[in-house]
Amino acid sequence: MPKILVIEDENLIRDNIVELLEAEDFEVFDAENGNIGVKLACQHQPDLILCDVMMPELDGYGVLTKLQENPSTATIPFIFLTAKADLGDVRKAMQLGADDYLTKPCTATELLKAIVIRLEKHAILKEHYSNQLKLAEAKLNQLTYQDSTTRLPNRLSLLEYFQQILCQLASLGEQDENWKHNGMIPILCMGIDRFSRINDILDYDAGDLLLKAIGERLKNSLRPENIVTHLNGDQFAILLQPILDKKQLQTTLERLQQIISEPFVLIAREVFITVSTGISFYPQDGREIQQLLRAAKQAMNEVKEQGGNHYSFYSPSSEHDLSERIDLEVALRYALEREEFQIYYQPQVSLKTGKIVGAEALLRWKHPQQGMISPMKFIPIAEETGLIEPIGEWVLYQACKHSKTWRSQGLGNLRVSVNLSGRQFRTPNLRQKLVKILMATGCEPDYLELELTESLLIRDAELSIQQLQALKALGVKIAIDDFGTGYSSLNYLQKFPFDILKIDQCFVRNLHNNKINAAITQSLISMAHLLNLKVIAEGVETQEELELLNDFKCNEIQGYLFSPPVSLEGFLNLVKCGNQLKISQPHS
Asked: What is the pTM of this model?
């Protein structure tokens, strides 16, 4: 039953209108002035308002204005019923937002007809707005619960689907004790290996097409009750139905790997991809979907680190490793300002004289709680986070300062050798930074050697050559470190402006018992000498290794046979005490 509000200050007219409308089965409210009318309109939200214009306190125009200002009453159909018939009054009423304007006296038929027309139009408008609202809600739900690129459910949808499968597992547990104690829900996190190359080689549109095609292929390869979602970027999550044994997943996982490995056609080109998949299980690995996703993603990342194109189950031990790594990264960010780093020096000894001729500077970290932390642990973290750049600069500065001090103390012309990381070497202003360090410490460039690995240099050979030549122009020496473990091409030795070749300890170890390594090492030394390079062998631990290297005419050695890396004080003691290497017959 439509509700109508009548606002009229003349009692007789108001009573007649109310009686007429009630006879037509309308629910009627009436007000004797404008202020009361506004209050009743807000209170009852009528479907239509009939209002006089000329009223004391607040006239009809004032009523309409107040109603228009209130969002809850602004759209209620409003009809003026007044004796004022001037065209200007009508125009003013319509400009304020009135829907109709009836002049008194008017017949009952005219009044009812106007009311019916306005109610019908309002009903049509309400239905239209309602439909528009439903469409907007549907679109909003789509945007909220569906990924725009792949049209797959998104992370928010995954949460709802997970709740549904939890109920399903609980129901199975109520019916069967085996399900109650052994039932589990698998969560798969799948990442595309080297996805960025698709965007780089083709473009981002092609990347989006690939994501959509992968989503469709995954969805079509699984039963409808299994949920495929797109998390973000190159990552998908798959929520599978409850299982009793992890072995049940093997066939599914292998099939998914196989299906994804088949070619995709993008912009008339075939593209082959592989995926890395991590799997976690409810309730063993977590009870919340976010916790399970995090565990599955961690397992996926471990697969990627091992080369990808495989799958792995989450292991709690890896969670501990990750937590430890995060703690270590946080501590590493403060280690420099808290002066927790130290420089250790491993002596480099001449095979011609047996005397110390230099030292390799090696970074050590003394954690306030954990003590000495292995460089194998913290150097990779420093590389990944970019902390290696400020840390590397600190090492360079300290090594140059110590080198200058040694000569100032009359300890001879000892060289210092410093490793440069990949990030340091690729820094555009490395030369300028090095000049500042040399000037600040007073270290002569002749006594500084910079060590780089061959794998670092060949990433961009031409750029590396330019950088090396700029550094050599300062007077420093360049050493290629760990030679023999990477590409080991004679072409690289000819191409790059090296001064020193360092043979990796993997060739030196048990040299006297390994004829192949002995032949390789002898060839490397001979080759280096032909190119006028000095040769330093690393990791020399036995007298037998030393004697053979001496026979091969290696220039210098470093290793535990003479001394492990020692503190600055320890190195100074070795030099001051005149420690020498025992060589049966030093080569000339």
From this structure: 0.55
